[in-house]
Amino acid sequence: MAKRKKSFTEQLMVPRGPVDLTSYDPHAKPGFKGGKKDGAAALLELEKPLADLQERLFAEGRSGGARALLLVVQGMDTSGEGGTLRHAVGLVDPQGVQITSFKAPTPAEKRHDFLWRIERQTPAAGMIGVFDRSHYEDVLIARVRRLVDRRELNRRYKAINEFERRLVDEGTTIVKCMLHISYEEQKERLLARLEDSTKLWKFHPGDIEERKLWPAYREAYEVALERCNTDHAPWTVVPADRKWYRNLAVASILRETLEVMHPTWPPPDYDVAEQRRLLTDEQPLL
Known about the structure:
The chain is α/β, with parallel strands linked by helices. About 45% of the residues lie in helices and about 10% in strands. It has 13 helices and five strands. Strands 2-3-1-4-5 form a five-stranded parallel beta sheet, with helices on both faces. The chain is globular.
């Protein structure tokens, strides 16, 4: 009997326990043997099944269903959150997608618990919600920049797990993707921005200073991946040095997740035959 091929989700799932990101190859392409051209073709092949599954989920939500899907995308600077959204999430109907990008909290948001602004953006029934950066910023930057003490950090890891557990219990399936790039690839992408006048706006002088904190950020990610890798909301690490593979992997994980959710077309709450008869017997306008 032929051995079953592992799904992208299975290939990229983070095992429980301590995490060492240096053991993950950011240039790898688990689950795919082809090259860039093959990857682009495979991504296009996902459009129809993904769109169909998303429309079913959307219809389900508009007909009284309570389920939703939340995609959490995190990564080092230049790992490609925006590109992932354009090429992977962009395969589905935008009316069924809710994208939220969490920047530094405003003074008003700082007056509340760190999860307050996150709770307000969770996806409604039938929607695919996307967090372009997320509640994990509050245990990543906060840890690296020492914005809070260790006790508060520990409280936040626990609060995140409880928050995600509650979302799942209420009907939201959570997909968490860490886009994993190398230190060298980040440098190349930053240099590319400086060579392209259309991308200069993306570059910030502070990016160079942030690179000096790479080991601290890697450690912060490793701790977050370990502390918040649960059965109800597991993490995947997506190699992101190859942009085309990153997009294919995230789109494939979305498809696999929706297939497991198995949204179905809601049954009509009216008599189909009767409505057909009314239309058939309709008199022409004078």
